[in-house]
Structures are given as C-alpha cells and as structure tokens.
Design brief:
By secondary structure, the protein is of the alpha+beta class. The protein has two domains: 101 residues, Helix Hairpins, CATH 1.10.287; 180 residues, no CATH class. The chain is 60% helix and 11% strand. It has a four-stranded antiparallel β-sheet. Helix 2 packs across helix 3. The radius of gyration is 39 Å and the shape is rod-shaped. The two termini are 46 Å apart. InterPro entries: HAMP_dom, Tll0287-like_dom.
C-alpha cells in the first residue's frame, strides 16, 4: 500500500536504494573477507622473507661461527651463546625490529625442551610443534591467537635437528660442553635426536595491523562504490524524468484537457519507444472519441 501511494520517481528511487543496500552489504562482506585475506598474504610474504633471512643467519652460525668457537666451549668458564643458531637468529631479529617496517614483528624459536629457557614454548606453541610432529607434510601453520597484549597473527614453520653437530649440546649431559652445563645446568635441552622436530619457528605481528590494512582498503573501496552509485542514481533520475516522467505528465495534462472538451489538444509523440506508442494510442482514442461525439451530435 505504501508503494502504491508513491509517485513513479520516488518509488523507483526507493526500489533502487533497496537493491543497492542489499548489494552493498553482500559486497561489503565479500570484500571484507577478500581484503583480510590479502592483508594476511602481505604480512605472510614479509614474514616468510624474514624467516628465510633468519634461516640464513642460522646456517651461517652453524657453518662458520661454530667451528671457530667450539674449541672454547670446554675451556671457557661460561657458555658462548653465539655458537647457537637459535640465539644468533633471535639477536639478529631484535636488530631488524629497530627498523620501521618490522618494528611490530616478533620472532621466536619456540622449543619444547630448550637449553635457554627464553625459548621455552608455551602451551599454544607446544600444540603447534605437536601438529608438525604428527603430520610431517605440514610445512606451515598460520592464524590468530590471543595474548595478554592483544591478538596477533602468526606464521609458524617446523624446526628439526638436521645436523649431527647439534647433538653435541643436546644429546646427553655427559657429552655436552662443560661451559654449557656450568651456565645452563644439566636439566634442560637434552635427549634430542637427529631429524626430530623440536621447535616451531614463529613470526607474529599484532592482528590490529592486519585488520587495519583490510579495513582501510574496505572503507576506500566501499566509498568509491557509494560515490559511483550516487552518480548512477543521479544520471538514471535525469534520464527517467526526461524520458518517462515528463512525457507521462504531459500526456496526463493533455488527457485532462481533452476530458474537459478541448479536442484540439494533441498527445505529443516525440519518440518511437513505448511512451511514443502510448501517445499514438491516445491520439487514436481521441480521434475515435471525437468521431463518436460528432455522430452523436448529428443524431440530435
């Protein structure tokens, strides 16, 4: 009933607005998912580059630094942590974080039983390691997790014992360097085996950064869509008034004039579309009406 009381222009605009609002909501939801996925991919791409960099640091440490420093592990009174690839990678990453693009990134080699308890995996990280152990085909995990400081987006990869040289410090306490036992004790970081997955290499970034990137892109795109819609509505309204509403109003005025006896009025036919066909039909009806009235007047 409400629509029936509206004029053609407002009725058309209302229906068009309803269609647009529905499409706008559906598009917004779809775009939100797409843009969030894109933001994740951008962060993941950066994270993977950093992981490759940290792996290069690890490889350099085990290949170049360990052979130079290993002889001192049994003679020095304290352990030299720079011989440990995980330590070197973590320290290098702390320096990387001093640059703006990576200041919000965090790196950890979350280990189930580490020598240095700084690398101890929490329950969430331990679950990741367990997933890597249960499925050797899983090479990467990512997602969101909640921390006391807020939600973060993480990327994790498995770390396994790939070199025999690692077992010098991690097989049994009696084979470990004396400086290691003196510094860290004989309780942690032992009974590792070759090719065992012992840790998860994680890089995380505050989720707000990921979500903000998606929100900013979404707001920009939806604003453009809204502007385009308003422009389209303005053009359609102009064309509707010019091509439909104005001719119909003219015909309504002519019909009213004819009904008052002004038979000289003509329904203007300015186009060959449906509006033009309607005007032609009205003119034929007026002519027929005029002939009928003339015949009726002659009889009287």
């Amino acid at each position: 009933m409400f629509l029936q009381r509206l004029k053609l222009g407002p009725k058309f605009n209302l229906l068009l607005a309803l269609v647009f609002i529905g499409g706008f909501i559906i598009s917004g939801l779809a775009l939100s998912n797409v843009l969030e996925s894109r933001a994740k991919n951008e962060v993941t791409s950066k994270a993977l580059i950093l992981i490759q960099t940290m792996n290069s640091v690890r490889d350099y440490t085990s290949t170049n630094l360990q052979p130079l420093l290993n002889p001192r592990l049994d003679t020095d009174s304290t352990f030299i942590p720079e011989t440990v690839p995980a330590y070197s990678a973590t320290e290098v990453f702390q320096r990387v974080r001093k640059t703006d693009p990576y200041k919000d990134f965090f790196y950890k080699e979350a280990t189930l039983d580490p020598t240095n308890l700084r690398d101890k995996a929490d329950s969430f990280e331990a679950d990741l390691v367990d997933k890597f152990r249960k499925d050797s085909n899983t090479k990467e995990l990512s997602g969101f997790r909640d921390l006391p400081g807020g939600q973060v987006f993480y990327i994790a990869r498995p770390l396994s014992v790939q070199k025999e040289s690692c077992l010098r410090c991690h097989s049994t306490p009696d084979k470990a360097p004396r400086s290691q036992i003196a510094t860290y004790g004989a309780e942690n970081g032992f009974n590792w085996k070759l090719n065992d997955i012992v840790a998860a290499q994680l890089i995380s970034v505050p989720a707000e950064e990921v979500l903000n990137n998606a929100r900013q892109s979404l707001v920009m795109i939806m604003s453009i869509l809204l502007a385009v819609f308003l422009a389209i509505v303005a053009v359609i309204n102009y064309l509707l008034k010019r091509s439909v509403i104005h001719p119909i109003r003219q015909m309504a005025r002519t019909a009213e004039s004819v009904s008052m006896g002004h038979m000289e009025e003509e329904f203007r036919q300015t186009s060959r579309d449906e509006i033009g066909a309607l005007a032609a039909a009205f003119n034929r009806m007026k002519s027929s009406l005029e002939i009928s009235m003339n015949l009726l007047n002659k009889k009287h």
